[in-house]
Every structure is written in structure tokens, then in C-alpha cells.
Input
Amino acid sequence: MKKNVTIIGAGLVGSLLSIYLGRRGYKVNVYERRGDMRRTEITAGRSINLALSDRGIRALEEVGIMEEIRKICIPMHGRFIHNADGSSAYQAYGKEGQYINSVSRGELNRKLMDLAEAKGANIHFHHSCRHIDWKERCIEFDNRDNDQVVENFELLFGSDGAYSAARLQHQLQHDRFQYDQYYIDFGYKELRIPPAADGSFQMEKNALHIWPRGNYMLIALPNVDGSFTCTLFFPFEGEPSFASLDNKEKLDKFFRENFTDAYSLMPDLGDEFFHNPTSSLVTVRCYPWIREDQFALIGDAAHAIVPFFGQGMNCGFEDCAVLDALIGKYDHDWGAILSEYQALRKPDGDAIAELALNNFVEMRDKVADKRFLQQKRIEAKLHLLYPEKWIPAYSQVTFSPGIRYSEALSRGKSQDLVMQPFMDEVMNGADWDNEAFLQRIIAKV
Amino acid sequence: MKKNVTIIGAGLVGSLLSIYLGRRGYKVNVYERRGDMRRTEITAGRSINLALSDRGIRALEEVGIMEEIRKICIPMHGRFIHNADGSSAYQAYGKEGQYINSVSRGELNRKLMDLAEAKGANIHFHHSCRHIDWKERCIEFDNRDNDQVVENFELLFGSDGAYSAARLQHQLQHDRFQYDQYYIDFGYKELRIPPAADGSFQMEKNALHIWPRGNYMLIALPNVDGSFTCTLFFPFEGEPSFASLDNKEKLDKFFRENFTDAYSLMPDLGDEFFHNPTSSLVTVRCYPWIREDQFALIGDAAHAIVPFFGQGMNCGFEDCAVLDALIGKYDHDWGAILSEYQALRKPDGDAIAELALNNFVEMRDKVADKRFLQQKRIEAKLHLLYPEKWIPAYSQVTFSPGIRYSEALSRGKSQDLVMQPFMDEVMNGADWDNEAFLQRIIAKV
Output
């Protein structure tokens, strides 16, 4: 057993990992590039609100902190769809009582840091990883004053996100490293719908709002203060795009025409649009994630994904829970723990990356499609009547932490193939809402 | 028009590019990391002999140097297959008179450097690219004495191979750079079959020899001195693998049992196997390849591929010819030239990367398969009778420089789909060698 653990990155995953390892009796030191977000104003304007769901919740419950976190969560029971023609539609995410949770990244991160410190973790801020010497097992950091600090490590985790410095050091000093970074042609920008004058929500509170527009979309998630954090997912180039909306007049005209109801609720649109940064959306796949018994990547550093399934954080939290279970299984034998951690999580990381990319098309385009919505209704009914035999893909990923992502991906694909001929019938007028029809589908599973 | 061109890398593609640009009236400076291979002994033991074929030949003919190069080429008309049971088989690459050419990388590179200098290129050896400043348009090199040399550039090409330093500088300073490096689980090692005592070839001279063994293979290409350069493509790990053959006894036993005829012709096997390096096989896909009118990647630096289609050099040479044609088309307007160069060559680079990966399975496994060989025979006959309507995939890539790689990939896939039901018939005993049967296939194209 190693006594000392070093973690690079005090984000959501690094902080939760500290809590898990502190509970297991490890002495944990965390090095974070940025300053302490609990003490300084954080750079606003580039966060997408998070959707905490069952996989993440299970990982938080395991260390007994979910009740604390629940205080800053707002349940979202379904998608509230704002169509281009001014009509709206509602699509429940799951069965009665199933929901996902809107939570602010900053709030959640601050709470997790507090809890990590309470479990004994020592967080060192303003420490930027510059170099790792894998043989000597030491790390060079640049600190706040650009002085170099060298720390030894016994067991190291890289939980420093999509642009991980730990991963880069791992990659540059690894023979035959598999590496793929893939950017979609879309960026995102944070916008805001403030609370009403009386502090109340200006739209349905308990939903994730979507304005699907084919090649782009706007979404909005509720905050505890009555506001909504909106995110515009938009092409970088072309017409329309971040490049084409280059002045306030064009911006206002575009929003007025395409997001009419939202536009009327966004008094600071111009300021936000032109001052908040435009951020990129990257998928990173790499291998290996580990070095013998001394190092592992975890969370986005191992598997950065696009945000369209709301699973980035949930997947990272699940990484922590899986790793923790393996500490028990292998009694602190880190060679065995890390090897099985990688074997289990690499295929699941690849699967959720693919699911998340696919879901972008679903969110921005298909949720406004009649056939798609009809299929969702039929699948929801199947799930209600045959809860064991038919679980919609979204529910497998979001509400079924017992099903691995890789399994959800393959089962989802099979189910979709089964559905297509029946959807042809339905679109040709067949009556689907009867047991005989639904039984025919179930017989194909 | 720019007057000065800077090229990083004096390998095969950098040297040919210098010849093309010299002919067009550009002043060319080439910076090469290594020393001058014409003056010093090159590091032996890590080259795969090259197979120069029609795309490469056309690019060499265009600048009038093919006759010079032909002197160091040995024609290979087909695959000579050495089966595990001691039997052998021969499979022509194309029609009568079609062949590929075995040529030594070192010999060819030396000749191309001579010709580049004759066209006015200035090659600076021992210059290792360390940093590129894209705004100031200057490059820092480390020279032989580890002094730093800074050179300005007007128009820059990165032709420095699979592990390109120019590409790294491009990538590190480019927003949303698409990058994928993929290593197969196999490495390669150079071995050798010397000439007979009288200087003659010990096996059929005009063929590419293959010992296909399912999960691994040995190949041998002839050299002008009567020897064969052999390459073992072998798993890094597992049984058997480079890791498992860890002493001379195991090595001899393995070669004696699995490559019996070759083994008897390899007197220095032990020395070569344990002293020559084991090299990796990487595929690199990236995007973009260019920066406005000032920079382009070319050859392996843009699209490193595995060697199993014998197209790495041919593709790089074709890059040069395509670029040159665009200089004519756009009259030295480099913004337009580089933009169309990328638009044309990126899909072709991706296609040949995929074709090359697929061909590994074909070479090491399928060439020993009865159905596969039968299909090749039928396709050869189709090509003979209907030369316009049916061109086998291999011939499209190797002998049809008029067909783009991307087109060859998609046509090859379609043809294979057409063939499968007919192959079922043939394997069930149908007589294929008659016009009626072959007409039925052609009718499906």
C-alpha cells in the first residue's frame, strides 16, 4: 500500500477523488493550476450548467455527500422544446419520478473542495504542472511567482481536464501512444436569462429548455437564484455563425427571428455575446491511461467528451467510484487496481464519447422531428409496460448506473434497428398504442 | 509570386519538391536534421525497401528524372507467396507488363538530393527545427554544435516525415487542430538474405516475396547487389512476438519452423534480429495541412501511413506533382494553390491511410486464403476482358494514377460487395471461367 497520493487538478473529479482516497486512509496532496475559486472571483462566461444524474449521484452517495449537494440542485424532469414556429413541446426524460439535476459548476466545485479538505486533502493552488519525470517520480510545477517547485510522488492521478498537462507529459514520454483529438465545427457561448423582478423564474423551472434549429441550438438550465444559464451551440464559420454575427444589429435581428421568446428575456444579450468567450468542443481519446502502479488519468483528462449527453461529470464521478471499488477488491495493490480500472473504463469512455457526439444531432435537429418524437413516445410506453425488456437508450445512460456505457451504446443501437420497420408502419398510419403492436416489437428484442 | 522557398526535411519528398520548385524558378533552401547521407554512413537496419509504382513514376517523369532513377530499380511483377506447408504460389500484380519497382530508400534519396542541388537547391544538414514563429515568419534551428540559428521564411513546406517537427509547431500553435495518431500493435525489423557466393539472387528476383502467417508475416524485396532486404512484421507482445523471442535458441527454432526456406538463406539472422532496432508503425491524420499562403505539410508529415500498400512514397511524390500543377493553374498565387492542394489531397491522404491499414490483413492473412486467391483470379480476368469497366482495387491504386485514392477506395468497396454473392457460387462449385458468368458480374457494376 502506498501512503501518499498526488492529484493534479482540483476540479470536480480531482476533488471527489480526494474525498474517496481520504476515506481510504491515503494522505492526499492536490495541485491546482488556478487560484482558489472559493476566495477569488472566477472567470465567468464559459461554463455550461451541469446535469447531475444517477451515475454521478451514486458516486456522491457512496461517500455520503449527496444530501449536501442536493441543496444546490434543481430537478429537471424533461426537455421543454421551443420550436421555431413559436409552438412548444415537452418530452419527459424518463418515467414518473426520474429526473436530472441542474447544478452550477462553480458551486459544486467549491462544495467538493470543502469536503475534500474536511477529509484531510491538502490543496495547493497556483501550481501549474510543467514537467513529470517518470523514472525519478517527481513533478516540476511553476507556482504563482513563476518559481519552480519540485515534488516527489508515489502514486499520481491526472484529473486536470480536457487539456490535461499530466496527459501531455505522459504522452510525450510514452512509446506508441494512441491519441486522437477531434473538434466539432461548433463552438459555444454562455448567455443568461435573469430572474423576474420578483426573483421568480421567467420560464418553466423544472426542465431543460431547448431551442432546436437544425444546424444550431440554444439551451437553458435553471439556477437556484431564479436565473437560467443559456448556452448557444453555433457553427464557428458559415451562415449563420459566430463569424457572421459580427455586430449588435445582426445579433439582435438573428435572435429576434430565431429565438423570439428567449430574446425577449435576455436584456444583456449584446454585452454577453460580444464579451463572453467562444469556446471549443473537443473529444479526446487516448491509450494507455495508466503507467504500471504509479499513474492514472481520470475524468476529462482520460476521456474528454462533448457535453450533449450531460455525462462528462457523471462519467468522471463514476470513474472515481469504480476505482474505489477496485481498491477494496485488490486490497490496495495498485498494479492490479490500475490495470483493471483501465480495462473497465476505457471501453466505457469510448462509448460515452460516441453517444455524446450522436446526441448533438438528436438535440439540435431530431427533437423537432415528428417521427423521432413519435418513436420516443412508443419507447417510453414500451419501457412502462416492459421495464426489464425495453429501456430507452437515454434512460440506460442517464438513469441506469448498473448498465455500463459500452453496453448502453450497443443495446441502444440494436433497439433502434428493431424500431425502424415498426416506425415505418406507424408513420404510414398504423395504430401503435395497443398491446398487440407493442408485443410484436418486444418479440424482436 | 514569392521568390524564396524553405523546406524542412531533405528526405524523398523534400528533395523531389525542391526539384519541382527549382524548375519553377524558386530559390529553395532545405534544412535537414541529419547529416548528409551521401558523405557519412547511414544508420542501417530500419528501412523497408520501397516499391516505386505508377504514381511515383509519373511524378518523377514529369521532372525528367525517371530514366536516371530506373537504373537503381528492380521490377517486381507479382507476389511470390511462401506458404507455411512449404508450397508456393505466384500472384501477378496486374496485367502483362505491369509491375512495381524495388528500390533502396538510401540510394533513391541520395540521387534525389544530387538532382535537387543540380536544380539549384541549397541543402543545410544538421539543422533541427526547434521552433517556428508563424507571425514573424521565422524558424529556430539547432545546428550541429547545438548553436541556435534563426532563419526567416516566405513560403514554408514541412516534409519532415511521420514525426514531423514542423507539424508539431503547426499543431501546438493552431486552434482546434484535428489530430489522430494511431499505432498498430505490430512492429517491424529489417533482416537480410545475402547474394549467393557467385553474386546471384538466391530466390526469384523479379517478385515481392511474402511469407504470410496469419497474425504476422515476413517479406523480401530484391536489391541490385543480389541481396534481398527482408522485413518481419510481428506483434510487439504476446506469443509469438518480439517480446517472446528473447534468445537465439528460440529465434532459430521459430524461424526454422515457420520460415523454413528463408531461414536457410539467412546466415546472420541472430545478429540482425538482436541488433537491428524494432520500429513502430504509425498512421497520422491531421487537419488543416496549411496556413494561409505561407505553409503546407506534404508527404508523411501530412499523412503518415503504414507501408502495406507500398504507397507512402508514391503518395508523397504525387503530392508534389499535384502541387506543381496548381502552381501552373493559379500562376504562383499561393493562397489559391495551397487551399486547393489541401482540398484535393486531404481526402486522398485519408483514403490511402485506410487502404494501407486494410492491406495489412490482406498481406499477412488473406493471400494464403483460397477464396481470396480465387476472387483475385476472377477479377484479373474481368479486368482483361473489360479493362474499362472492372479495375481491381490493387490496380486502381498501383497502376492507375488517373484514379484518385479516394475514388479507388470507394470503387474498391463497391466492387467487393458486387463480388461476394458470385464468390459464394464459385466456392459452391460454379464454373466461373466463361463469358456468361463474367457478364453477370459486369452487369452489376
User: Anything to note?
Assistant: The domain at 5-44+51-71+104-181+282-360 of chain B is CATH 3.50.50.60 (FAD/NAD(P)-binding domain).
